[in-house]
Design goal:
1 helix; 2 domains; Methylamine Dehydrogenase, Chain H; mainly beta
């Protein structure tokens, strides 16, 4: 071996040794696979839902047993497909990455899972039909989309679905009467650290109250731990003492309204209790529950017997904020 070739070989070996030494002494940064997309804000049950990038919109069509998908990227708002599902779909949820659409089929008692591939323009592949409870009305995903909660309105239960296997992993049976709306706050941690809020649709009798009074019933929202999928507590939504509308009579006191009512006759205060809690939405530390307030005491009049109410829950205290 010539001296020149030997020098070049020695230099190459020294470079390899130096590179190896550098690698072993530089902190190693592990390259992980891309994280699963997650929603930025809270999630809740709806008849229409968006993916986390706001690029895919799913809309439930209960009257013709289908779900319509739209491309909403860059303001396209273009219809992609209409997919046949089970009977009377009322609720939809889209996975954060937009690869799956979940549909609550109320009459069928099932959840349809639609696989979506926006790159290949594939939108109508139903990969699973999952049996749940009686009349599943709504559903909502955890922030990373790993668990799906389904409110079964007529069996008074919530089904918990593992979205990796499309299997029901638990049925929570003690959630109250007619569970309807679902909301999950998204606290920024893992999905099993979340809390799930489920409305009970119809008002329930208030202790010590007589039916017929404007404060005879209360609304209920069930609080569920996503870690254990068990009920933690209930939030009671209190009646409104004064709805702001006056009645011209008082039915319970047997004071009839005059045959010809004047402005001066409207002097009886009417309250209202929360009823028909169809949905719930969360922003920050508060949950908002729109409902149809009932005022059973008082003459039949559009602005006396029913009210549009919005109850607010303090999530930190887990109680009515009103």
């Amino acid at each position: 071996m010539t001296e020149n070739r030997f020098s070049r070989l020695l230099l190459f070996v020294l470079l390899l040794i130096g590179a190896a030494f550098s690698v072993t002494n530089v902190p190693f940064t592990r390259v992980e696979a891309q994280e699963v997309a997650r929603f930025v804000g809270s999630t809740n049950s709806q008849p229409l839902a968006l993916s986390a990038d706001d690029g895919l919109l799913a809309v439930a069509n209960p009257d013709n047993n289908s779900v319509t998908l739209f491309d909403t990227r860059s303001g396209a708002n273009a219809k992609l497909a209409e997919v046949r599902v089970g009977e009377e779909p009322n609720g939809v949820a889209v996975s954060p990455d937009g690869s799956k659409v979940y549909v609550a089929n109320t009459i069928s008692g099932t959840v349809s899972v639609i696989a979506v591939n926006r790159i290949a323009n594939s939108y109508d592949n139903i990969i699973a039909t999952i049996a749940v409870g009686t009349e599943p009305y709504s559903l909502a995903l955890t922030p990373r989309g790993r668990k799906l909660y389904v409110a079964n309105a007529r069996s008074n239960s919530v089904s918990v679905i593992d979205t990796a296997t499309n299997q029901v992993v638990k049925t929570i049976s003690d959630v109250g009467f007619e569970p309807r709306g679902i909301a999950i706050p998204n606290t920024g941690g893992e999905d099993n650290q979340e809390t799930v809020y489920v409305t009970q649709f119809l008002a329930l009798p208030a202790p010590g109250k007589v039916d017929g009074f404007d404060d005879a019933k209360v609304g209920k929202v069930t609080v569920i731990s996503a870690a254990t999928d068990t009920v933690l507590s209930e939030v009671t939504l209190q009646p409104m003492v004064d709805s702001g509308f006056k009645a011209a009579g008082d039915a319970l006191k047997r004071i009839a309204a005059p045959a010809t009512v004047t402005k001066a006759d409207f002097k009886f205060t009417t309250g209202a209790y929360p009823n028909q809690l169809n949905n719930i939405a969360i922003r920050g530390r508060y949950a908002f529950v729109p409902n149809t307030g009932a005022s059973p005491n008082g003459p039949v009049r559009f602005d006396v017997n029913t009210q549009s109410l919005l109850h607010v829950i303090d999530l930190n205290a887990r109680q009515d904020a009103g």
